[in-house]
Amino acid sequence: MNIHLFEKMQQDGHLSQASAEKLRNAAATKLFSLHWELKTILYLGVLLLSGGLGILVYKNIDTIGHQVILAAIAAGCAGCFYYCYKHRNPFSWQKVAAPTPFFDYILLLGCLLFITFITYLQGAYAVFANHYGTVAFIPLVVLWFSAYYFDHIGILSLAITNLAAWLGVNVSPYGITEDIFLKDGRLINTGAFLGIALCVADYLSHHFNKKAHFGFTYRNFGTHIIFISCLAGMFSSGIGLSISEGNQYFLWFTILVVGAWWFLKDAFKHNSFYFLLIVSLYSYLGVSYAVLHLLIWVDDIGAFYAGILYFIASAIALIAFLVKANKKIKHAGL
Amino acid sequence: MLAYNKSQLDNQEVVAAAEKAYKHQYITVEEKDSILAAYPVELYTPNIFLRIGIFILTGIICLFSLGLLVLMTLDSNDKEKAFGALLVFFGVAGYIAGELLIKGKHHYKSGADDALIYFSAICIYSAAVIFYDQPYNERGLSLVALVLGIYVSLRFAGMLATAAAYLALMYFLLNVTHSPWVGMAASLGCYLLALRIKNKYYENNSLVLQAASLLGLYAAGNYYVVREHLEIVQPIYWITTALLPLVYIFLGVYKKDRVLLRVGLALVAAAVFTIRHYNSVAPLEVVMTLGGLAMIAIAYGLIRYLKTPRNGFTSEEQEEDQEAALQLESLIIAQTFNRGGAPREGIEFGGGTGGGGGASGEY
Is the CB of A306 inside 8 Å of chain B's CB atoms? Predict the structure, then answer.
């Protein structure tokens, strides 16, 4: 904070003596915080350690033996959970602060070790035989429970991605773009339902006021998944306007439009410009694809010009809309 | 030189500081309102999300306008020259539009003004590439980029332009001489220059230049870069490779300079990779495990040690927007750990990552 700025304001008579004194104190006691640097090192350390141990075990599997490794993983996992259980703040349906700076990381490590444990058990002994669903489901329950019991948003996102994996959809926030052109209609349907379910979870979190601060995470994943599913559904439907032969192009387009309308209304209601923007951009992508679809169908040089003019005009219109919406919302938060 | 109205920028700074002070309850609401009334801000600076949206959409408008005119002039005789002329036209038009937005509508980093200015700069540079084609001259082109970068940095305080100008300078030097010492000296010069920029309107440019020149200084003296790209093999570069990050960190802590500190920390990784590339002391997994353990131990020790502030350092958080940071962290966790955690989705559904064509943008 620039103290000279406030000195000048005090001279101009905008600040009282007491406030100026407070500001001076704050400036004098300002510390150089290494918080983010240290946390990053800690996080990278956990990442390297778990990766390194993984490879180490993989390479020496013949000499160590499965039981020893499994026991070591189980011991580590149990140790992490024991630490968390010991140090946790009392459970509450509201936000609970982490008791120590390391709590979040140890819990994360414990959960990751648990997933490794289950996967390993299956890999080495095929304990669950062909029930791959169970292999994914057990960690899912543990993750969800840990997220709520110890109040950890990171574990919650891990649980959501695991749920998606269990359902067969890959929804890692960036990895999702790789799968956008999935041709498998079943996966797209699953994705759409998952997205809706996550948005319902957000609604319920707020409605019953149980861990309401988890709402944003549900909603963020849910919104992205719904729209990406709609777009994937549209893109994977063939060119052509026939409704027959199982072409679901119109279905997805309708869902996209209805979804956009509903989410936009909701974004205004919650004063969230972030959602307004992502919903606008996704729907813009969808509508533009529909327009191009139509123009390709017309197949004429005039249509080509029309397409270019469409993009210029629609981008201008969208900017006007966003600027106007911003005036209405006036809020930059999430 | 700056295109924006300086007294308006001053007012914006005052208002931002007052709102921050009010958020921390150093000043009362009456005081805040009185300051807000005394320092009116007419600049149009929307929030970051709107800025991103406007930036993307303005880019779309510019590109498709260019596409439209290219289509209309396609059947001229000398296509290349015609395209170059069109680029110059768009460069000038984009620049004028940007200036008008800033002068008339008081846009300041609204997404529209920066998009127009960068579009215009790219157009002019591309036109230079087309017209400068015979004989192809990399030195001349990097000088063009350097001049454009410096101009946009000074006129619009563009941060990307500052980084581009630095890169152009380095590229120019690389084409003149292959000596790493020249690159290092030039980077050091840029860094010292950046430290001397005390003009507050260029504060961010100074930070960008500091970070870029520190990275460049290291890259120029890095053993791997020197050996593989400049084809010079001399053991002296081992010293710069191993010691520079430590020097950065030491100076960063000593001077409480965040740029030095962060760049130094990041470069430790680069130094380790470089050393491992030529001298494999231990297998990768052992290095990873030991490195991870060491990092956890160091971070753990320092967090504990600095819990009560010492010498002006603390490991506690200061004035940060916690909620946003937490959400970001959760996304990173989900991103980095997901692949390992998701058990064999492929077996069940035979899902594939089939690559479809980019269907959204153009025909």
Answer: no
